[in-house]
Here is the input.
Amino acid sequence: MSTHPHEEWSQALFRQFKEAGIELFTYIPDAGNARLAELAEEDNETRLVLLTTEEEGVAMATGADLVGRKSVLMMQSSGVGNCPNFLSFAKGGNFPCLMMVSMRGDYGEQNPWQYPMGQAVDKILEAMGVMIFKVDRREDLEAAATAAINAAFRNCQGAALILTQKFLGAKAF
Amino acid sequence: MTKITLDRRDLLAPLFPDHQDWLFVSGLAGSSKDAAGLTQDGANLFTMAGCMGAALATGLGMALSAPDRKVAVITGDGELQMGLGTLNTIATQAPANLTVVCIDNGTHGETGGQEGHTIHRTNLAMIAQGAGIPSVKEISSADQIAQAHDFIRTRPGPRFLWCRVLPTAPTAYKRNLNPAECRIRFRAAYLGA
Here is the structure.
């Protein structure tokens, strides 16, 4: 049986999310979150929710928070472009919104369609008050995830853990 | 064509005489005014005045996170149609405790009464059925509210109640529009002091 290319860090990050009390994992599938999503589905204490568009996950985080529960929204960088209006919950309402963004269009990208949105991710998130925690190297992952979790759930705001293509590797086309 | 005689201001009180027992999320504009009128802007209600299209997903997140509580989303046809995909997400997750009440006046009431899609050919009950929502019901007159009351309590969830109403004014109610205050209020009431 071959090991998933993202097995090791996905296991570590899933453990960290669980230890932070996150029960709800919402997502639009991407190569960068595929293994993490499987782990959330397999675990009895967490729930994986397939969305139709990423902004749904922002609203679901709001609904979960109103009854005291924690969630994480996992998406590809293109999905950040679908979220800004709903990020009003985080910016205007102090709702925690933890996002995990797997990047496209930033380093070694071979699909030209990915560049426009990939290059706009930081600006869009910053415009809506979402703090950004980037991971370029494996050794940065745990500290960045801890920082994002703290920003989201202790300061009650938007926080994005961004896994770059330096970290994930660029897909061949 | 179905003859619509239902006044939205007559809808929610007989539908939710036990409103204290529910958790409510309401979409922007008229549906939030109606919901605030029902609960006197109670702490078991989270209303919106923005984020159009978010009501269903907010209610879904709440229903999945509070499975032992009855959760109802009250929203308009325009708001619902901005997040139609969430009907699919709800159908797949299938929370038994979730009810969606769509108050459909066929118009964008808040912005001047411009015609919406449902005044023409769009049938939201068929869309909800097609999404896979197990229990779907349509009403358009006041004498059907008693059936609707039973429908949302006895049919398997998630449920979708399509309430076709006249394009008349919603309940006049001034609710708290500060989302941060409303968040704290809701959480304090739900989570307890």
Q: What stands out?
A: Residues 8-191 of chain B form a domain with the Rossmann fold fold (CATH 3.40.50.970).
